DNA sequence: GGTTCAATCAGGGATGTCCCCGATGGCGGC
DNA sequence: GCCGCCATCGGGGACATCCCTGATTGAACC
C-alpha cells in the first residue's frame, strides 16, 4: 500500500476541523489544522501537504487570500475548496485563485475522501450541482462573473488592489508580498488610472461595490 | 458522579456532526445526530435528549421550524442554537422560537461544553458578542440602534466621523461644515483615540460595520 | 468665581499618499 | 530586431494624515 495522502485542514471553526480529523484521520494523514489565513500560509509552506482542504469563508480574505499568497510557489500542493456556499461567484473566485476542486460541506465522508484522492491525482473535482456553471464560466465566451474593468488590470495590480482596498498602507502591502514600496506605488497608480479613480478611498468603495474583499 | 448530559446534534453537515461527536463524546452522551428538520423533530420526541444542539441554517425551515414544531411539549429538553451567523435577526428569531442559548461556531471545545452544561442547568447562554443586542431587543424600549461607543463621541465628532468614513479628505470636510482643517484634524484625533482606532481606514471599516453610512 | 468640558484654531513634525520623471529586464508579437 | 507591455525599482515633490503641544471662547455645574 502506498503512503497516505498528507492533508492540511483550513477552517475557522475548530469544531469542523475536529470533524474532518475524526472522519478522515484513519484514511489520510492529517498533518495539521489551522483556523486563519496567516496560519494557513505559513503552515502550507512549512508542512508541504499534498492536499489543502480549504474553507472559502475565512476572516481576512478567505481561502482566496491564501491561494493568492501562495501563488504557484508550491505546484505539488493541490487545494480543494470546501464551503457551505454554492454561489457561483465564490466558486469562480476560488478556482481562479488556483483551487483544483470545490465541494460543499453537505458532502458525505466517502465523497470527500474520493474528492481528496482525485484532486491529489491531478483531477478537478466539483460537486455535481456546481459542475454546470463552472464549465459555463470557463468554456463559454461569456463568463458569468468576469468584470471587464477588473480584467483590464494585470495580476499584480489586482493583488495590490485587494490589499489596498482592505486598508493596508503601501508599506504593509510591500512587506506582505515582498516588494519595494515604490513598486506598490506604481501598481496603485496604474490601478487608479485604469479605473478612473482619484484616491484610495474611492478604490475601497469601488472594491466594496464589487464585493472583491 | 452524576449521569452525563444526553445531547442530540442537529446539523445538515455530517462533517460538523462528526466534529461535535469527536470533541464532546467523552464528556457528554451524544444520543444521536441528524441532518434534517423532519428527522430532528421525530428524534427529539423519541430520544428526549436533555439538550438539543441545533444548527440555525437548515433546509426546509431551519432550526426555527424544529422549535416551532415542538412548541412547549417537552419542557425538559433545552435547545442551544449553534450557528455560523452572528446576525441579529437570526439570533432573535431562534430565541423567540424557544431556544435557550445561542453560540457561534467559532466557539472552542471548552466553551461549548460549558454552554451545554449551563443550558441544561436552566441558564441562558450567549456568545459575548451577541449578549448585547439580545438584551437590547428584549429588555429595552428603544430598539437595537443605541451604540455605547458612538455615544461617547460629541455631536461634532460624530458629524466629522461620518464624513471622514465616506472618504472625504480633511480639507473637504472642513469646507463642507465650515471649519478650519486644523479643527477637523482635532476632531478626527479625538474620534480615533476614543474608539481605539489607529487610522481613517479602520474608522471606515468601523463605521461600515455599524451601518453608519 | 472656579472648574470642567465642547468647540474652535495654530505651529510643527513624522509618516503616508499620489504624482511626476526616469531606469532595467523579460516576454511575446510582427 | 524592434516595439509594447509587464514587473520591478529609484528620486523628488506636493499634499494628506496623524500626532504633539498649546491656546481661546462659551456654556454648564457647583
Please estimate the helix content of chain A: 40-55%
Overall 3D geometry of chain A?
elongated
Class based on secondary structure composition and strand pairing of chain A:
alpha/beta
Query: Oligomeric state of the chains?
Result: homodimer
Topology of chain A as a string of helices (H) and strands (E): EHEHEHEHEHEHHHHHH
CATH superfamily of the largest domain in chain A: Response regulator
Low-confidence stretches of chain A: 137-146
Architecture per CATH nomenclature, i.e. the level-2 architecture of the largest domain in chain A: 3-Layer(aba) Sandwich
Percent range for β-strand residues of chain A? 5-15%
How are the strands ordered across the major sheet of chain A?
2-1-3-4-5-6
Kindly state the number of beta strands of chain A. 6
CATH topology of the largest domain in chain A: Rossmann fold
The number of distinct structural domains of chain A comes to 2
The pair of chains with the biggest contact is: A-B, 26 and 27 residues
Number of helices of chain A: 11
CATH class label of the largest domain in chain A: Alpha Beta
User: Major sheet of chain A: size, sense and barrel closure?
Assistant: 6 strands, parallel
What is the radius of gyration of chain A?
A: 18 Å
For the record, give the distance between the C-alpha atoms at the N and C termini of chain A, rounded to a whole number. Answer: 44 Å
Overall pLDDT score of chain A:
78
List keywords for this structure.
homodimer; alpha/beta; Rossmann fold; Arc Repressor Mutant, subunit A; 2 domains; 13% strand; DNA-binding
Amino acid at each position: 500500500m502506498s503512503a497516505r495522502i498528507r492533508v492540511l485542514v483550513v477552517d475557522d471553526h475548530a469544531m469542523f476541523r475536529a470533524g474532518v480529523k475524526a472522519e478522515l484521520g484513519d484514511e489520510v494523514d492529517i498533518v495539521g489544522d489551522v483556523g486563519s489565513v496567516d496560519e494557513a500560509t505559513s503552515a502550507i509552506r512549512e508542512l508541504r501537504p499534498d492536499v489543502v482542504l480549504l474553507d472559502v469563508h475565512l476572516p481576512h480574505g478567505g481561502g482566496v487570500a491564501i491561494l493568492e499568497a501562495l501563488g504557484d510557489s508550491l505546484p505539488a500542493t493541490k487545494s480543494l475548496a470546501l464551503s457551505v456556499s454554492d454561489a457561483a461567484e465564490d466558486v469562480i473566485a476560488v478556482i481562479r485563485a488556483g483551487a483544483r476542486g470545490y465541494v460543499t460541506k453537505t458532502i458525505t465522508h466517502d465523497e470527500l475522501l474520493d474528492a481528496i484522492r482525485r484532486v491529489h491525482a491531478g483531477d478537478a473535482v466539483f460537486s455535481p450541482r456546481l459542475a454546470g456553471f463552472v464549465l459555463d464560466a470557463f468554456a463559454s465566451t461569456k463568463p458569468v462573473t468576469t468584470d471587464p474593468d477588473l480584467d483590464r488590470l494585470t495580476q499584480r495590480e489586482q493583488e495590490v488592489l485587494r490589499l489596498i482596498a482592505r486598508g493596508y498602507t503601501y508599506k504593509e502591502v510591500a512587506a506582505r508580498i515582498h516588494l519595494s514600496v515604490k513598486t506598490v506605488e506604481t501598481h496603485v497608480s496604474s490601478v487608479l488610472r485604469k479605473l478612473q479613480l482619484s484616491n484610495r478611498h474611492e478604490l475601497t468603495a469601488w472594491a466594496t461595490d464589487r464585493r472583491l474583499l
